[in-house]
Amino acid sequence: MKSSMPIRAASSGCVSPATLRVADRLTVWQTRALILCAGLLLALGQAPFSFPIGVVLGLPILGGLLRRVPDMRAGFMLGWLAGSAYFAGSMFWIVEPFFVEPEVYGWMAPFALIFLSVGLALFWAVGFGWAARYRGQMRLVALVATLTLAEFARAHVFTGFPWGLLGYVWSATPVFQLLAWIGPHGLGMVTVAIGVLPLIAPNRWLKGGILVAALAMVWSVGTLRLPDTPVPLRDVTLRLVQPNAPQRLKWHPDYVASFFQRGLSLSAGYDTPVDVVIWPETALPFAYGEHPRGMEMLHNAVGNAQFIGGIQRPDDLKLFNTLMHLDSAGNIAATYDKHHLVPFGEYVPLAHLAAKIGIYGMAAKDGTGFAAGPGPRIISVPGLPPYLPMICYEAIFPGLAQVKGARPDWLLHITNDAWFGNFSGPYQHLVQSRARAIEQGLPLARAANTGVSAMIDPYGQILQALPLNTDGFADVRLPEPLAATLYSKYGELPWIILALLLVGSAAVARRRTSA
């Protein structure tokens, strides 16, 4: 990186002389520290902090520095440093799965955090570097589009990893409701615009005024979408079971039977009649079709209710992570195989080569990994409204919460978040489940092994939840769905068109300046 990267203006007209004098007081290392701090401030917007201070401090810092970089290379480094801090600060939970079996995988933990952070930051680097091609204030206009497009690429390239998208920093505010119209990437675009476009104003008072006005506008729009009265409830009761089996002990021979018995106890009897009992991902300790006595015990426990739960399903040489639906008679009415698998968790790319250096899929007990199912689908069984299931990791992908040509009445998310530790990972996963409910205008029921299990209404509001790391159950009624949202109808297309228009405008301005 050029030593003058953050403090030399690309054009003398970019910023006021007073601002340049302030910037000139910073050394290269102080500027790099400022960039890292800005990235960490943005990370504070992610759960469990959910404090979007980075929008009013972190993004303006990065936008101000972007105007001063001399070239694309410096812009690339600016984005790479900021992104590395953001992803390290928001995704430090990634080390948790490696300590489920520390004697086997513990050595990988620091490398996982480092490589994930700096690797994902390359998308931000491209976004900032691309914006740095333009001149003056148009860099800020371009950044709104290029950083959003970079985040979109992160969500899709190499199977995608859209965890911790910028739009999720609003999860504790009414602004989160904008997901229903523009989705997570559109909300990310709005977020960047709020943070950097006020910098175009000629003086600090106008900058501040525009920032406050923009915040007030999106806050008000989100508030107006929220209902004045509770969402109507259907005459359908779900029992969400949270067995709370620690991952290190979940498959231990000395504990498997007790965890299964705990699940049966939480499913049986009690005063409230329920229509369906729901267990988390891979909660059944035996393979599909291989334990008739276990299935009988399960049916006896749930009584006349239907049952939905996670199980491993072998099929010839393949193994599937499966959701199994039993009708009220205890017969298998439907199954759904998880189709978007976790890289290095449920499968390993180039598995045969990876096995030679001792790298296996951590969630597959036999080391061979899982096979992918055919894709998302709606399950319709008599006695329950039709639903679309998602298993664990699938809920972080906005596009997997719907299927073409049909619309379910509710979403179901079963997961085993014991892998994600006790601090940030489970709460960030919950935020993403809430996002899927808002985007589709559908209620979402969530059964998680160690929590957080919850009933979420179509506005993303948690109606009832079981705390993290507790065993128990929650009997919840299913909320009514809303009408199809704009996002569910049009997806990402509107903001992609807007992003391309912004990039095109910046390009036209660049050519006119050069002429």
Verbal overview:
- The structure is a single chain.
- With 515 residues, the protein is an alpha/beta fold.
- It has 2 domains: 17-227 and 491-514, no CATH class; 233-339 and 374-479, Nitrilase/N-carbamoyl-D-aminoacid amidohydrolase (4-Layer Sandwich), CATH 3.60.110.
- Helix content is 42%, strand content 14%.
- It contains 17 helices and 11 strands.
- The protein has a 6-stranded mixed sheet, with helices on one face.
- Strand 7, helix 15 (425-440) and strand 8 (444-448) form a beta-alpha-beta unit.
- It is globular and about 75 Å long.
Task: Please supply descriptive tags for the structure shown above.
42% helix; 515 residues; disordered N terminus; 6-stranded mixed β-sheet; alpha/beta; 2 domains
How is this structure best summarized?
The protein has helices at residues 17-24, 28-43, 53-56, 58-66, 72-90, 102-105, 109-131, 138-154, 179-196, 204-225, 247-250, 256-267, 292-302, 351-355, 425-440, 486-490, 493-514, and strands spanning 233-242, 276-278, 306-315, 318-326, 332-337, 387-391, 410-415, 444-448, 453-456, 462-466, 472-479. It is α/β, with parallel strands linked by helices. It is globular, with a radius of gyration of 24 Å.
DSSP strand (E) fraction?
5-15%
What order do the strands of the largest sheet run in, or round the barrel if closed? 5-4-3-2-1-11
| Shape label | globular
**Average predicted confidence as pLDDT:** 90
* Whole-number tally of structural domains: 2
- The SSE order reads HHHHHHHHHHEHHEHEEEHEEHEEEEHH
Largest sheet: 6 strands, mixed
Provide the gyration radius in Å: 24 Å
Unreliable segments (pLDDT under 50, ≥5 consecutive)?
A: 1-22
Give the tally of β-strands. Answer: 11
Number of helices: 17
Instruction: Return the structural class.
Output: alpha/beta
Tell me the helix content.
Answer: 40-55%
